[in-house]
Amino acid sequence: LKQVFNKDKTFRPKRKFEPGTQRFELHKRAQASLNSGLDLKAAVQLPHGEDQNDWVAVHVVDFFNRINLIYGTICEFCTERTCPVMSGGPKYEYRWQDDLKYKKPTALPAPQYMNLLMDWIEVQINNENIFPTRVGKCE
């Protein structure tokens, strides 16, 4: 179990919403509706009077946390030796391009690809221009 929480692995701590913010309240509402066994379509609908961007941001961060947790539990089984290619089955190979280090689509082992992907997503989530956290504070 220690390996799952090893900082050198791709597991990352959960992103959290600051208590007292509107997004924190939306997150609590989203969790309550998803955990109550309601119709999924109804559970993800924008609550009346809420900002659509805040609602989407809450779900993006929640999705990132869930994928991160799932990947953290399987990453020890997918090594550069056992997963030399990032693929989606025999017909699809994913290649990494970030226009910084990887200027052209580059084939990478799955763990390296996933590390780059999770880092990239985390940068996007932490970008105040994309996901502002100071907007919509509850009073």
Automatic annotation (TrEMBL):
Keyword Transit peptide belongs to the record = no
GO MF annotation, one: kinase activity
Coiled coil ranges (UniProt) are none
Decide whether keyword Metal-binding is in the record. yes
Residues involved in Zn(2+) binding: 78, 83
* Keyword tags: Kinase, Metal-binding, Transferase, Zinc
Matching InterPro entries, A to Z?
Answer: MOB_kinase_act_fam (IPR005301), MOB_kinase_act_sf (IPR036703)
Q: Mind telling me which SMART domains this protein's record contains? A: Mob1_phocein
Fetch the Pfam families from UniProt.
Answer: Mob1_phocein
Q: Which PANTHER family match?
A: MPS ONE BINDER KINASE ACTIVATOR-LIKE MOB
* Record's protein name: MOB3B kinase
What species is this protein from? Neopipo cinnamomea
**What does UniProt list as this organism's lineage?**
Eukaryota, Metazoa, Chordata, Craniata, Vertebrata
